[in-house]
Specification:
- The complex is a heterodimer.
- Chain A is α/β, with parallel strands linked by helices.
- Chain A contains ten helices and 13 strands.
- In chain A, strand 2 and strand 3 form a beta hairpin.
- Chain B has one domain: Alpha-Beta Barrel (TIM Barrel), CATH 3.20.20.80.
- Helices cover 35% and strands 12% of the residues of chain B.
- Classes of the chains: A alpha/beta, B alpha/beta.
- Chains A and B meet through helix 6, strand 10 and helix 7 of A and helix 10 of B.
């Protein structure tokens, strides 16, 4: 048996606890106040460039692709409405400075680092070079290539990287092709022991061909989003939202869908 | 024992004291940069007199890198460079000039026996604000109130370097909104800027050759906020009297995805669009106009829509140089964009360079150099696609 006074205190405490729980639960369903302040009208204006496929392509006159899906997911995470704006390649950082867009979707993180007033988010893809070899005969480092044959695209970044390797390790044969796809064909047909291509080419090729490979990243090209460094809270909010997408597995799912 | 220790400290005290004094200054010591002393004056030896390359030396901090870049231009067989000389760098406050970087570049270019075509543009902050506008500006925002200041700067540059620089390009790709700080483009206003610049330069350096900036090749529809079709731009600017204020035209004509021999058409962009640009201008000039293709080339970024493979870029570039030598005697120079950037762009623009920021010569550099030296490159630059084993 509980005394009436004590019962009243317990009820009051219970009501207070409910109020607190309700208040916190409600916060998860409405945009944080700072998001609303930073993105007036509830819009996230996303700068895209339709040229550099395969991140984004025009399908029936409308942009589609990895960047579009990722932009939508990011806006959804922040409970904002995504608006995609095509920006010119030459003036894209200016479109941030002039307030035409809130963020750019595809920027090399190192390029953003060279701009005093621009910040990159955490990278969402590494587009650097990968050494691709057969799973049953894997090659992991440049030293593994000594005495072997390496297929690559003539004049490409892989060609330059291979020239560097040739100065450092025992001789190996380079097989120059016109296209990275031909270099990967050379691997598939076992004309070459390995192929050196960038990660995008490798992923796109492997989507089209059944091939069990070992793939080792040999150089980095971190692809990130970019936005103005001021105000810093905007960067924090967007980067945190991107982090949430990583934690939820959404970024991996989108990469798997498009690349 | 203690006394002995104290005696030891006393004996070595002066040395320790000196070390203590020197220690704070050790952090300022660093390896000396390679010196960039001038060599014996050089001459360009080439079988391609039209060959020229656009450099990006103005942002190069270390003088030896400027010198090395220009050595590589000469060794490649190019006799001319195009270089950007930004107003914003040289006149940071009205009337106060710092020419150090231009002096460096031109000193080394002269030493290597290279002709320099100077491109003028980029607006200092004080001039951008002269219109009193409150909206944000970019480095390309040029309010009408600053036109005279720009003309004065160009004239001052022309006079200072009249023995080293004979050709000046006024602005860059003026048919793009980006090049005016995302403002609407106007051929008529550009012609007025040419007039003001012409008058100032003629008074300061009568022999300087003024070139109108090459419009960016583009098929922008009428009314586009991004810019204006290059042929329409030339039509309208020359109809507005551009020819009265210039001696020649800088052409920008990239190959995009087509071979250099591909015929030109008004609704497509390729290397031979330069022929249409020239024809448009010829209708308004007296035949005395000189033409320089100050930007051309192919991009080999693997993920850029308007690019070709690095291998095909080599093939097309060599073919373009041969084509131009045979078919375009009216063209003074064909300038490849670009030799090298001071730092990587980390995007598709890197697909235009001949040399990396680390001075690694790309295969295309070797191929152009071989052609300019009079040697062929052979037909088979790459292997045929592999075939599946039967």
């Amino acid at each position: 048996m509980v005394a009436p006074a004590r019962r009243a205190v317990l009820i009051a405490l219970g009501l207070m606890a409910l109020t607190i729980v309700a208040a916190f639960a409600g916060r998860g369903r409405t945009p944080a106040p700072e998001v609303a302040d930073l993105f007036p009208g509830g819009n996230l204006r996303i700068g895209i460039e339709t040229s550099p496929s395969p991140y984004v392509q025009l399908q029936g006159g409308k942009p589609a692709g990895l960047v579009i899906d990722l932009g939508r997911a990011l806006a959804g995470e922040l409970e904002l409405a995504p608006h995609f704006i095509n920006v010119s390649l030459d003036g894209r950082f200016d479109t941030l400075r002039l307030g035409i867009v809130d963020l750019l979707m595809v920027v090399d993180a190192r390029q953003a680092a060279m701009e005093a007033d621009i910040l990159a988010t955490r990278p969402w893809f590494n587009a650097g070079l990968v050494l691709v070899s057969h799973e049953d005969r894997p090659f992991h480092t440049m030293q593994d290539m000594a005495g072997r044959s390496l297929a690559l695209a003539l004049g490409s970044a892989a060609d330059s990287e291979a020239r560097r390797w040739q100065r450092r390790i025992a001789a190996f044969e380079t097989l120059p092709y016109e296209l990275p796809q031909h270099a990967l064909d050379a691997l598939r047909f076992r004309v070459a022991h390995a192929a050196l291509v960038d990660a995008l080419d490798a992923r796109l090729y492997l989507r089209q061909h059944e091939l069990a490979v070992a793939m080792r990243q040999v150089s980095d090209q971190h692809v990130a989003m970019a936005l103005l460094s001021d105000p810093p809270t905007r960067w924090q909010i967007l980067d945190r939202a991107l982090g949430n997408l990583f934690e939820q597995g959404a970024v991996a799912r989108l990469l798997g869908r498009w690349l | 024992m203690m006394l002995e220790r104290l005696g030891g400290i006393a004996r070595h005290g002066p040395i320790a004291l000196r070390l203590l004094v020197v220690l704070p200054f050790l952090h300022v010591l660093h390896p000396v940069e390679p010196r960039a002393t001038l060599q014996e004056p050089q001459q360009v030896v080439t079988s391609l007199p039209q060959l020229c390359v656009h450099t990006r030396l103005i942002d190069e901090v270390l003088e030896w890198k400027i010198q090395r870049s220009l050595q590589l231009v000469r060794e490649m067989g190019a006799g001319t460079i195009v270089e950007f000389f930004p107003w914003a760098y040289f006149e940071t406050s009205p009337g106060n000039h710092n020419w150090q970087q231009a002096d460096r570049i031109l000193r080394h270019a002269g030493n290597q026996g290279l002709r320099v075509i100077a491109r003028m543009g980029m607006v200092p902050a004080w001039a951008r604000e002269s219109g009193g506008q409150e909206s944000p500006t970019t480095l390309n925002t040029l309010p009408p109130e600053a036109w005279d200041d720009f003309a004065d700067f160009v004239a001052t540059f022309a006079a200072r370097y009249q023995d080293m620089v004979q050709h000046l390009i006024i602005w860059n790709e003026p048919n793009l909104a980006f090049e005016w700080g995302h403002a609407a483009v106007s051929p008529q206003e550009y012609v007025e800027l040419l007039r003001l610049t012409h008058d100032a330069v003629r008074a300061a350096s009568p022999n300087t050759i003024l070139l109108a900036a090459g419009p960016a090749p583009t098929l922008e529809p009428v009314g586009s906020p991004q810019g204006m079709n290059d042929l329409l731009w030339l039509e309208e600017s020359f109809a507005a009297g551009a020819a009265d204020w210039i001696d020649g035209l800088a052409l920008h004509s990239y190959g995009f995805a087509e071979a250099p021999e591909a015929p030109s058409a008004r609704d497509s962009l390729n290397f031979r669009r330069a022929e249409l640009q020239r024809e448009t201008v010829q209708r308004y000039s007296d035949g005395e106009m000189v033409f320089f293709m100050t930007e051309t080339g192919w991009n080999d970024d693997p993920h850029h829509d308007l690019a070709v493979s690095p291998a095909r870029r080599i093939r097309y570039t060599l073919d373009a140089l041969r084509f131009s030598s045979r078919q375009w005697p009216w063209l003074e120079n064909l300038c490849l964009w670009a030799l090298r950037y001071p730092a990587p762009s980390m995007n598709w623009r890197d697909g235009f360079t001949l040399i990396t920021p680390e001075f690694l010569k790309k295969p295309i550099y070797h191929a152009v150099r071989k052609l300019a030296s009079g040697q062929g490159n052979g037909d088979a630059l790459w292997l045929p696609p592999p075939v599946a084993p039967s």
